Amino acid sequence: MTEKISTYDYDVAVIGGGPAGYTAAEAAAKVGLSVVLFEKNQLGGTCLNEGCIPTKTLLYSAKLLDNIRSAGKYGIIVPTLPTSDLPKIIARKNKIVRKLQIGVKAKMERAGVHVIIGEAEIVDGCLVRCKDESYTTQNIIICTGSEVFIPNSIPGLCDVPYWTHRDALNCTEPPVSLTVIGGGVIGMEFAAFYHALGTNVTVIEMQDEILGGIDREIASQLRMEYAKRGIVFLLGTKVDSVSQSAGDINTHCTTADGSPVDVTSQRLLIAVGRRPVKPLVENVTQNMYLCGDVNGKSMLAHTAMREAELAVDHILNGSEEKINYHTIPAVVYTNPEVASVGLTEETASSGSRIIRIPMTYSGRFMVENEGANGLCKIIVNESDERILGVHVLGNPASEIIALAGMAIMQKMTIKEWKNVIFPHPTVGEIFHEALS
Ligand code: NAI
């Protein structure tokens, strides 16, 4: 028998070291494949360095502030009003990011991944170039992520100083006022953060509701909660132009009823979406995989990780397993949180039934969320009673939504899900209550 001698340096080349990239690299290396990973900035990608982790660190401080402010409702006297120390919040965020960067680096080392810090260029399906070196490989997993989208359709935008999420993550003095263009996930999370710090926030959204893709009823309840607290929302509003005067930024808009409105604020945050960073590849060949934000399918870190695992499975044994994108949960880390998985009331067909109960049906929710109602919605297929969608407004929605994802993934019926024993008292019991 003649031994097959590989002429390739690597079995797998991974381009990009974010959640998709480091997951793919680790999974491939752990099963014995030789792996090289290229990262042009920092390991951890957008999620760790300027996305999920840093924003959640900031939002945790905001939540603490909210909780301290409402301590009186729980019988706790806080003698003076709490204030924030933004430089300290940012420093803590930086420390957490640094620690986790070290963690990802260690993970790559342990798995035996060859990490190269530099910008890689895909020459063809078998050749990658980086810093004048060439690397031959049998497979390429492209995990180049996404970047902020800055619209060129807003006149004046390029002449005013504006923030992207990057600036909003590193500001050390809360602005007096902030206009957020875009009421999506990024817009709402930063609106919530700066509002908690005392900034006057206005959110301008061109659609008739914030958080496109999230169940409308839940999105509108969250918006009404924040409107009650003082955030101003301009829905169905078109930004006509922006300009600067006396250090402030004026956002000139036309509201839903056609009236012109000018919003003046110290800072302007652009949060109108992200776009995939597609590497220049002449021909996408069979041995190339696009995982994570770069494929534009879901733009969530947890989706990216699963896509990466499946790409490695395909390389290893030709597995054709596909992701069911309907079973991927989405979370908005406002306070209260919103979490959602599966079909919404809007996307479900007419043969579905909507179960809707306040979160206060969970004793534990009542205990920990004085004065809040929250909402849990379950979308069920009328004919076979299978769970199709679950939507939660209320803390800790992010922690309980995986239960719902599992029910949808396993195609559970009402009866089957209800028979799962939930510990008491927990907020997750809300699902049991809703199905009873
Ligand atoms: P997005 O697509 O979620 O929201 C952008 C919003 O801007 C939309 O509501 C859109 O209608 C609005 N918009 C667009 N152009 C506008 C204009 N000219 N004037 C007013 N409104 C305008 O994008 P976002 O919030 O920037 O987030 C980007 C990606 O990052 C998303 O795919 C999201 O899933 C991901 N992400 C996820 C997070 C999470 O899972 N918690 C947190 C942050 C981001």
Comma- or semicolon-separated keywords:
single chain; alpha/beta; Enolase-like, domain 1; binds 1,4-dihydronicotinamide adenine dinucleotide; 436 residues; disordered N terminus; 25% strand; five-stranded antiparallel β-sheet; FAD/NAD(P)-binding domain; globular; seven-stranded mixed β-sheet
Q: Could you explain how this protein is built, in words?
A:
It is a single chain. Helices cover 32% and strands 25% of the residues. It has helices at residues 19-30, 45-50, 52-69, 86-111, 165-168, 185-196, 216-229, 301-317, 363-368, 397-409, 414-418, 429-435, and strands spanning 10-15, 35-39, 114-117, 120-124, 127-130, 133-142, 146-148, 177-181, 200-204, 232-234, 238-245, 248-254, 260-265, 267-270, 274-276, 288-290, 330-332, 338-342, 352-357, 375-381, 387-393. The N and C termini lie far apart (65 Å). The protein has three domains: 10-147 and 276-323, FAD/NAD(P)-binding domain (3-Layer(bba) Sandwich); 157-272, FAD/NAD(P)-binding domain (3-Layer(bba) Sandwich); 326-435, 2-Layer Sandwich (Enolase-like, domain 1). The chain is globular and about 65 Å long. Strand 8, helix 6 (185-196) and strand 9 form a beta-alpha-beta unit. The structure holds 1,4-dihydronicotinamide adenine dinucleotide.
